[in-house]
């Protein structure tokens, strides 16, 4: 339509400023370099690189991936080369692409988280940190902090003592109640929360009569988790004032709109990138098209729109 407004998709979360609300999720793109070679990273508002720990981790033994009818089970186990190599090799190479970088930080103890964060403090090109308190695929650390409000709060407070960067806390759906955990993160000073990480699940090889994954359990992602993720984003955005970043089964612009209308200020795309590396570009174009057609001038106009005439969840 001639003369139509170009919708403003930009969003600010703490000190993180993004040109659009679509983020490449941690764990799927690795450190981004392979996807950059496909020419599909520059469209995103930001990219979250693979969970980074203090020391290198070899991850869990194979098999550690299993397809399901509506998603993917993974038990990778936070395989990564450790923060020193990430700082010296991965981030500089990714920084050259011009993308906005968020580092996903993981650890087994609060001291490990803080050591990784301190090492990242003076690294150019790191726009924000996503604190992973939700990985179900490691024996210690990660999810142990995110299963209860006090553990989350204590960790966030410890990290904020050693950094001034924008802090996003990635929450686990495996907590008994995710809302108190989100409130604890907010009260401790987190600038945003992202949810959900994968849901604990499993698959069995009936011929071998044993679990498919070497670790028995793995994290389920993909379309199967979308209704659960959407409900949790709705509940958490009702309970906190800080921005909520929604993820879980998003593969179309309509999926993204559902999360935004449920209260998410931004969304992350993960598993869908395995089957369609260009899905981010398609979602962003779809958001622009829908907003133009609906006369929405900015993203803020539709965040939480599904709640406009409701008083509760």
Q: Report the end-to-end length measured between terminal Cα atoms.
A: 37 Å
> Counting H and I runs of at least 4 residues, what is the number of helices?
10
Question: How much helical structure, as a percent, in the residues?
Answer: 25-40%
Q: C-alpha Rg, in Å? A: 19 Å
Q: Largest sheet, if any?
A: 8 strands, parallel, barrel
Bin the strand percentage: 15-25%
Mean pLDDT: 92
Task: Report the order of strands and helices.
Answer: EEEHEEEHEHEHHEHEEEEEHEHEHH
In quaternary terms, these chains amount to single chain
Strand order of the largest sheet: 3-4-7-8-9-10-15-16
Shape label: globular
- Unreliable segments of 5+ consecutive residues: none
Number of strand segments = 16
- The computed structural class is alpha/beta
Chart the SSEs and their pairings:
Elements: E1 11-13, E2 16-18, E3 22-24, H1 33-37, E4 46-52, E5 65-68, E6 71-74, H2 83-95, E7 101-105, H3 110-120, E8 126-132, H4 143-146, H5 149-160, E9 167-170, H6 178-188, E10 192-195, E11 199-202, E12 204-205, E13 210-211, E14 217-221, H7 226-239, E15 244-247, H8 253-261, E16 266-269, H9 272-275, H10 279-294
Parallel strand pairs: 3-4, 3-16, 4-7, 7-8, 8-9, 9-10, 10-15, 15-16
Antiparallel strand pairs: 1-2, 5-6, 6-14, 11-14, 12-13
């Amino acid at each position: 339509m001639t003369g139509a407004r170009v919708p403003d998709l930009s969003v600010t979360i703490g000190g993180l400023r993004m040109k659009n609300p679509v983020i490449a999720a941690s764990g799927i793109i690795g450190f981004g370099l392979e996807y950059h070679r496909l020419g599909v990273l520059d469209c995103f508002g930001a990219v979250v690189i693979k969970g980074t720990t203090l020391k290198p981790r070899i991850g869990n033994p194979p098999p550690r991936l299993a397809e399901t009818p509506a998603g993917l089970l993974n038990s990778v186990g936070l395989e990564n080369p450790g923060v020193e190599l990430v700082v010296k090799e991965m981030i500089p190479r990714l920084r050259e692409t011009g993308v906005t970088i968020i580092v996903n930080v993981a650890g087994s103890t609060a001291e490990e988280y803080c050591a990784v964060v301190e090492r990242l403090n003076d690294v150019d090109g790191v726009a924000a940190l996503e604190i992973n308190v939700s990985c179900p695929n490691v024996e210690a650390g990660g999810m142990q902090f995110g299963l209860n409000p006090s553990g989350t709060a204590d960790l966030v407070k410890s990290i904020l003592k050693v950094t001034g960067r924008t802090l996003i806390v990635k929450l686990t759906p495996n907590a008994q109640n995710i809302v108190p955990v989100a409130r604890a993160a907010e009260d401790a000073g987190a600038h945003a929360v992202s949810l959900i990480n994968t849901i604990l699940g499993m698959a069995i090889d009936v011929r071998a009569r044993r679990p498919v994954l070497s670790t028995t359990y793995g994290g389920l992602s993909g379309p199967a988790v979308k209704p659960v993720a959407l409900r949790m984003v709705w509940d958490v955005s009702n309970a906190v004032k800080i921005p909520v970043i929604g993820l879980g089964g998003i593969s179309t612009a309509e999926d993204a709109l559902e999360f935004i209308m449920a209260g998410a200020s931004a969304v992350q795309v993960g598993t869908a990138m395995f089957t369609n590396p260009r899905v981010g570009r398609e979602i962003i174009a779809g958001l622009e098209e829908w907003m133009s057609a609906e006369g929405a001038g900015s993203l803020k106009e539709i965040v939480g729109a599904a709640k406009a005439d409701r008083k509760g969840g």
